[in-house]
Each structure stands twice: as structure tokens, then as C-alpha cells.
Amino acid sequence: MARLRTPSRWLVFALLLAACAHHSASGEPEQRPSRDAPVSLEVENHNWSDMVIYLVRGQLVSRLGSVGTLHTAVFTFPYLQLGNTGNARLRADPVGNLQSFESEDINIQPGQNLKWTIENDIDRSFLSAY
């Protein structure tokens, strides 16, 4: 009588591991954006004042530009400007007013898009990342 040989446990394990490998819908492995991919920030200003927008990382403050009352502006900056952590805040300085407003800390990824809506009641402003 002939004896059937069973596959080794390692072969079964390797086949299962290969079957569980993660691939995107196209069958290609997922690729992350490079660290030099720009970050896009869209600012929608519903406030009565024109705003000057800054990127704040620790004590380093970089001016991105300005957005007028009831207007939308898009700013881009290199991800490498955020340093190693990717953490930053956004600051809006109303023109002609001494009080500025800062967003909460955000962790930004390379190539990410941000949208900051500044409301007339500035404490109700909100930030989204996608």
C-alpha cells in the first residue's frame, strides 16, 4: 500500500502567510507618499476680518499667506518643513486685531490635504484632514 506524504508544516505556514499578504485593489503593494510630498491647506474664511495664516511648529512660525473675508485660499508647503515629527498648529491673525487664534495640534502626513474653516465666532472654527 502506498503512503501519501503530507506537506511539511513550514510549507503550509508559508502558503498561509503569502495568502494573507496585504495588497491594494490593483494588486500592487501600497506606496506611501515620499517625505518631500507637499501638504495642501485650504482655508475658508467666514470671519468678518481678513486673516493672515501661519504654520506654527514649536517656536518656529512660518507665514503661509492671507485670505480675505468670505473667501477661500489654498496654500501648499513642503512636508519637510515640519521636521521629523510632523506635528504643527495653524495660526490665524485677524488683520487690525491684536488677538490671534491657533488650531489644536495636528499630526500631518506627507501629501495630506487639510481644510481649515474659520468661522465668524472664531472659537467654532474647525480643521479637517483627508
How does this model look, in words?
A hairpin with a 2-residue loop joins β2 and β3 (60-67). The strands form 2 sheets. Strands 2, 3, 5, 6 and 7 form a 5-stranded antiparallel β-sheet that branches. A 4-stranded mixed β-sheet has the order 4-1-8-9, with no helix packed on it. It is built from 1 helix and 9 strands; from the N terminus they run αβββββββββ. It is elongated and about 75 Å long. The protein has 130 residues and is mainly β. The protein has a single domain, classed as Domain of unknown function DUF5300 (Immunoglobulin-like).
Concise overview:
With 130 residues, the chain is mainly beta. Helix content is 8%, strand content 40%. The mean pLDDT is 83.
**What structural class do helix, strand and pairing data support?**
mainly beta
Fraction of residues in H or I helices: under 10%
Largest sheet: 5 strands, antiparallel
CATH class value: Mainly Beta
Question: Architecture in CATH?
Answer: Sandwich
Whole-number count of domains: 1
Mean pLDDT: 83
The DSSP helix count reads 1
Unreliable segments of 5+ consecutive residues: none
Q: H/E series, N to C?
A: HEEEEEEEEE
Estimated share of beta-strand residues = 35-45%
Named CATH topology: Immunoglobulin-like
What would the principal axes of the Cα set say about the shape? elongated
Give the beta-strand count: 9
